[in-house]
Design goal:
single chain; alpha+beta; three-stranded antiparallel sheet; 42% helix; binds zinc ion
Amino acid sequence: MYCPHCKHPDSRVIDSRTAEEGTVIRRRRSCPACGRRFTTQETVILMVAKRSGVTEPFNRDKIVRGVRRACQGRPVSEDQLAILAQRVEDAIRCRGSGEVPSHEVGLAILGPLRELDEVAYLRFASVYRGFESLRDFEDEIAALRSERDRAHTPGEPADEAQRLDGSPRTNGQDQRQPADGAAPR
Ligand SMILES: [Zn+2]
């Protein structure tokens, strides 16, 4: 890997440690040419298996594009879309499998999207789950309502969407910051 500072084609590993509960290896490297240091990171490439049998690397941008379409005209920012895609990736990665069927990716989108914007959620769910009639929408809306009522009842267990990724949405951004000393300079 080229030195990000001077493009020297070689570097020396000076420290190597696992992070994020063993799912990541970070290596601190030193460039023999310019002497500066940088960090690289190694993770399992998460593969998505499509129905056709083709597998491709998980792509966060693809999630953003799909969800952005459902959010047209809705008060949802690009940052919110990026956070959602990140939550989806985290939820899938923490299952610990290197390959997931594409429909599970779709399922993992539903929970966070429902929290983000219920109209966009309905649009996405209607395509993803193949709604065919008004009845399908009515059922889904009824489910949303009862979910919301339950969520607002104190003392009830957290709703499914929150359990899916195990973290409340407000924490999503801060947790992504690399640990001290691990950030490339
Ligand atoms: Zn260098």
